[in-house]
Structures are given as C-alpha cells and as structure tokens.
Amino acid sequence: MPDLPAIAQLLIVFSLIVAAAALKVHLGLAAALGGIALALWRGLGAAAIAGTAFGELLDPDTLLLLVLMTCIMAFSSAMKKSGAMDDFVEAVTEITPSRRIAIAIAPLLIGTLPMPGGAILSAPLVDAMDSERERGPGILACANYWFRHCFELSWPLYPSFILTVSLSGIPATKLIALNLYAPLSIFTLGLIFVMPRLAESERNAKSHNFSGKRFFRRLAAFLAGIAPLALVIGVYILFAILWSVVSPSIAMGDAAKSLMGRYAPIFAGLAAGVAHIAARGGGFKAFRGCVPASTLRLIATIAGIRVFSALIGQAGVAEQAARELTGAGIPTIAAAAIIPFVAGLVTGVGFGYVGLAFPIVLGLVAGGGPLSLEAAIVLAAAFGYAGMMLSPLHVCMVVSAEHFGAGLPAMYRRFALPLGIYVAISLAYVALLTAIGA
Q1: What is the DSSP letter of 285?
Q2: Which of 35, 112, 354, 417 lies 20 to 30 A from 149 at CA?
Q3: How many degrees, rounded to 5, is the angle at CA 153 between CA 151 and CA 158?
Q4: What CA–CA distance (Å, rounded) separates 88 from 80?
Q5: Model confidence over 164-194: pLDDT tens digits?
Q6: Roughly how many angstroms between the first and final C-alpha of the chain, as a whole number?
Q7: DSSP characters for 80-134?
C-alpha cells in the first residue's frame, strides 16, 4: 500500500481517526496516533516524527492556544457561577421569537468573534437554553457547531477572509458581497435541518409583543444580558484595530507580530469580560474551581490535533495531493473544488485551507479558462469550508462534541445533508457568476 495516492492515504487515516473516536478512544490520542501512522507511512523516521511532535507541542502558537482555551472555559464557567450565563440566556430568549431561534442566535453571535475554538464559549449558552435536553446531545452539539460558522466566509475579521483578500486581490467589500449568499444559506439550512421545530413546547408559551414600551424593556434587558460577551467582542475588535495601526511601527519579528495580532486582542477582551463578572458582586469567587478535569481532557485533545496537523505538514501530504490532482489532468473547475476541500479536511481551519489551497487555485485560473477569478474564489471557499466543517481536526467540532457528550458520527449524521445542499447551492451560484461573466 505504500504507493497509494496521497489523497487515498489521507482518507484512510481520517476514517480510522473517526472510527476510533466512535469507539470512545480519546480523540487527541487517536489524532496523534493517526499522525504518527501517516508519517511512518510516508517514510518519516522516528527521530523526525518525535522532533516534529515535540516541536509543535512547545511552539508558542500551540502554547498560547492551549492557554487561551483554558481561559475561555474558565470564563464560561465563571459566567455560569455568577449568574451572567442565565442573564444572557434570558436576554437572547426574550428578544427572539422562539427558543429554537435563540439557540441558533447564541452561537451565531459568538461566531462574530473569530477566535480559535470559540464554540466552547457558546456551548454552555446553548446548553442552558435547553437545560431539560428536549433535543438530544447530538442536535445541540451540531447546532452549536453549525451556527457558530455561519459568517465564516463573509465576516471581515476572520483570518481566512483577510488572507483571501490578500492572496486574490479582491477588495474586501466585493468579497463580502460575493459571499453574502453563504451566511444566508447556511443559517436557513441550519434552521430547517439542524434545528427543526419540535411538536411544540417550542413555540414559547408566552407571546412576543415587539411594540411600544415592552419592546424597549426587552431591548434594555437584552443589552444588559449580553454585556459580558459584548465587552469581550468589543474590546477584541478595538484592540485588533489598534494593533493593525501601531504594529507596522513596532520593531518586532514577523512571527512575534503575528502571534500578538492573533492572541493579544482576544486575551484583552477576555480580561474585560472577567472584570465585568468580578464587578457584578463577589469579586473573583466565581472563578474558583473553574478548570475541571473536563478542561484538561479538552486541552489534551487540542494538543493531539496540533501534533497530527504538524506531522501531516511535515510529511507533505497535502502538497502531494494537490500535485496529483493537477498532474492527472483534472479539469480546472474540479481541481478548484477538490484541492481546497482536501486542504480543509487536512487542516480543520479556515486560514489553513486558504493558505494551502488558494495559491494553487489562483495559479490554475491565472492562465484563463472557464472560471473567472471571482467565481474560482467563491467555488474554492465553498469547498474549503465544506472540508473544514467535515474535518475531525476542527477544534470547534471537538469542543462541541466534548461539551454535549455527543459522538462525532452523530454530529456528521445531523449536518451532512444541509452541508451537501449548501455545496449544491454554491455550485449553482458559481454557475450563475460564470454565466453573467462575474
């Protein structure tokens, strides 16, 4: 089997990881072992594998990510202990026409904050909105995961969006307009397939009257309820803007600047949220015991995923898969879809598939062909997004499954159909763009 194509090797290892997770093997362990197996299959020696694995675990980016995830979980726990979580739940529930919509809106709001593993912040909110588990853990986990990524392709704060603008040269406003179909489609499909109506205690017994003083009271309660998260998001955005302004004049290496740009704003936002919770009364008591064993298990899972990603990168699997596709005479349209899809599966993150696949896609369309630049980017983004959403390395899927006690197969069964429909919509949209010459 050593002469199997790189894509086949990837799919075999991914299948084994998912199967191991279904058998209750710790996902971090399964991912790390899968990475080692793939690296050995690709001919890497034991010394190279060990060096890559330990180098990844000690990399500042990995360490900051693990610290950030711990802080996010501690912040979520403190919100629950202090009563801020209940306030947020009540605020979102009051301002939306049904609890079903509220469950969708909570991760959607958190999704405007492009931070690694942000689904862990919305998971307790979704859980609290259905504390009696009228919906099963698989549905809640999938809802938290699905709605968290509605704005992935069109929100200008996402690293993947910024990188797409940089690589393609398409202005940010035009890229937002091009991809506006995506959040509308994803949200609608989520309501239909991921969060269908119940029979129906779901239609809140209370009637929502959105007129007059009652509406403004609800609006005021909503603003007060979302204050901790609004502070996190607001301070994050403010610091991100400030950093973009001052960073060019700071004498610092590019790698250090990149880390500062990615992590300093969100740490500042979390600090503001922590201060707000402490000011509610009781000081920092809500943060006692807020790093339980489940947090440590999650950190171990993320560490295993990072090791897997580093090993497949060292083995050059994705690059060879791309070369195999182009060398086999695959049509441009198919290559522009398959390469980002594979990259999304491999990396599990948006900026991963953009950074790995988009330069190849841009090279494919540079010499002309049936696809315009804009149509190619829309197509590549849609398939890269689909691959990312299916990837068992996607941290948001992992933390959603861990929080709700749902297995990855249960989540796949819930969102596979709407994701497939979204891909079909994207193909029709690309065909329309091509027909009108956009």
Answers
A1: G
A2: 35
A3: 75
A4: 10
A5: 887 888 988 899 999 999 999 999 999 999 9
A6: 44
A7: HHHTHHHHHHHHHHHHSSSHHHHHHHHHHHHTTS--TTTHHHHHHHHHHHTTT-S
